[in-house]
Amino acid sequence: MIFAILIGLLTAVLLYFVMFKDWDEFVECVEFYCTPDIISALRGRYWDDVWAETKILLWLGISVTAGVSAYFWLN
Fold it and tell me: Residue 1: how many CB atoms within 10 A of its CB?
């Protein structure tokens, strides 16, 4: 199980460097994720919000899937 967690964390770290330019972009994506879509639309940043949410969900989804797959593959 520890190996599967390490695989998931390693995948998350590697994807972080591929998907995000720096820490500020990651924080901006998290802020967009926490902001309701209607607020982003009223601010005129709806498509930025959609793209940021997509990046965060892809990052989390691929990382978790890698860890879970490693867990089931090793058992």
Answer: 10
Tell me the C-alpha distance between 47 and 1, whole Å: 39
Give buried/exposed letters for 10-48 (b at 16+ CB in 10 A, else e). ebbeebeeeebeeeeebeebeebeeeeeeebeeeeeeee
The answer to whether the pTM exceeds 0.70 is yes
Which residue in 65, 9, 67, 60 sits closest to 30, CA to CA?
60
Instruction: Say how many CA atoms lie within 13 Å of 39 toward its Cβ.
Output: 6
Contact 67, 7 (CB under 8 A): yes
Over the stretch 57-67, which tens digit does the pLDDT of each residue have? 999 999 999 99
